[in-house]
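User: Can you help me understand a structure? I only have the sequence.
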Amino acid sequence: MEGFLSRFFTLYRPLITVLNELLGEYELSYSLWQVVSYVESNGPSMLTDISNYYNVEKPTITRRVYRLEELRIIEEIDGPDRREKVIQLTEQGKDVYRVCRRKITELEQRIMEGIPPKEQHATFQTLPKIKNNIVPVEEKQNG
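Assistant: Let's start by predicting it. Here is the structure, written out as tokens:
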């Protein structure tokens, strides 16, 4: 489908801008939110798991985690292997997550206004399939 990437990128950049504005009130950006959201969904997490999930280099996740620790949103806890850092949300982090998640849900509802539920569902189901077509086979096997 020619032109798909062009259409996608005209959506992506404004969406990230709106998300960053929404999260900025809490000194977060979308990239920091990804870590918060992952830990909320998965519980105490190793940085390599977060890195693999988002297909981002571990040093990038380490920098994000350091910033979230400064904001007292996450904290390091003891894990099974001292060589691997394990993090979890603090109580403050859980509160920030709840507030931001509510605002993001409101944004999601607003940007889907006027789109029939069947089309919304089709889009929701299609995006992960596109991701699976992008991620190289060896990354799928190793990740």
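Now, to help you interpret it: The first strand starts at residue 45 and ends at 46. Residues 28 and 143 are 27 Å apart (CA to CA). Let me know which part you'd like to focus on.
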